Amino acid sequence: MKRFSCLTALALASTCALAAAPGIKDAAAYDVSKLPDDPYGRLVRYGKELTEKTPAHLGPEAKNAKLRYAANNLACASCHQAAGTKSFAIPWVGAHATFPQYRAREDAVSTLQERVNGCMERSMNGKPLPLDSQEMKAFMAYMHFLSRDVPVGARVEGQGLPAFAPPARRADVQAGAQVYAGKCASCHGADGAGVRAGKAGDGQGYLFPALWGPDSFNNGAGMNRLLTAAAFIRSNMPLGTTHASPQLSDEEAYDVAAYVLSQPRPVKAGLDKDFPARWNKPVDAAFGPYVDGAPAEQHKYGPFQPLTENMKKLRPTAAK
Ligand code: HEC
Ligand code: HEC
């Protein structure tokens, strides 16, 4: 469809310079086994291995104790599904083309390495990887490989998460518990602890990852924001769901995300330093301080529309 309109534009003797955003290709396009056995090919393959088998290499049970930078047994691919190649599951295809980039969380321009470490410290509840480590280089090489056909600065169709328009009400944790029992607990467990792939201690991580409790993402993670979690869940869960064929309504995704995020998880220190430009803080950031005077509960569970409206008013003045 996109290609067709581009061809049409060519037929009209127009240039194709403003071509539509590139899309994510079929899995074969990202097959690392076809790369030669040379230094680049080996590093890309190691990057993919780290993405899928993160606990074996970087987790708390990793054989090489010096590399235990992550403090939980999730894999990057627990969220960046299909090793970072699934549309609307925060894919890495094109990530190399969109960094360096301004990030509100730091109120500064961040590199792709710093973004990886954002997930290391939050999603993985761990420590940042040294920038000159082989592991950081491997992540960069793999993301570079996934982005190789994407022009610098272009945004890929399906990158990130789709926008989520929340219902105009507070999320209903009790209703979310019902959705969870019916559609999630069979894999992630009634206690949210997931199902290990092997045995605890063997570094094999999860068959079905932990959604809460001590071995999941911490409260500073992007997934701990209600609108982020709802968007992820709506387009990707239960397993097998795609953005084109969601299995939950917006209402169900909103409530079940609230239920998951109402449960205990590791706490990150120093979160008050996040989003130093307070007026630029997302309305669903689950921790203070907030500049708008609304209660913390509302920032966690909504309703979000009044907060969004209020932030718009605050922005120009608070930014001065
Ligand atoms: C618990 C889920 C989760 C896990 C596990 C996770 N991430 Fe993320 N990651 C996210 C979310 C959510 C975002 C987007 C957050 C936002 O910006 O709102 C993200 C964003 C990113 C981005 C930026 C993508 C872009 O297009 O801007 C990179 C790069 C990244 N993660 C790398 C990693 C790496 C490397 C690992 C493993 C070491 C990892 N992540 C593990 C949830 C996760
Ligand atoms: C059939 C099994 C299955 C069902 C049912 C299921 N999930 Fe998942 N879920 C997975 C797997 C497996 C992953 C890891 C990603 C992957 O392998 O593609 C995952 C990942 C996740 C993640 C990100 C990783 C993490 O640890 O936080 C969240 C959040 C999540 N699921 C929420 C849900 C919710 C909410 C439901 C119910 C609406 C649900 N899942 C239903 C299997 C399932």
From TrEMBL:
GO molecular function terms noted in the UniProt entry: electron transfer activity; heme binding; metal ion binding
Leader sequence segment: 1-19
SUPFAM superfamilies from the UniProt entry: Cytochrome c (SSF46626)
Keyword presence, Iron: yes
Keyword Nucleotide-binding attached: no
Cytochrome c domain segment(s): 171-264
Superkingdom of the organism of origin: Bacteria
Record keywords: Heme, Iron, Metal-binding, Signal
Region of interest (Disordered), residue spans: 301-320
Family matches, as PANTHER family: BLL4482 PROTEIN-RELATED, CYTOCHROME C DOMAIN-CONTAINING PROTEIN
Designated name of the protein: C-type cytochrome
Species the sequence originates in: Azohydromonas caseinilytica
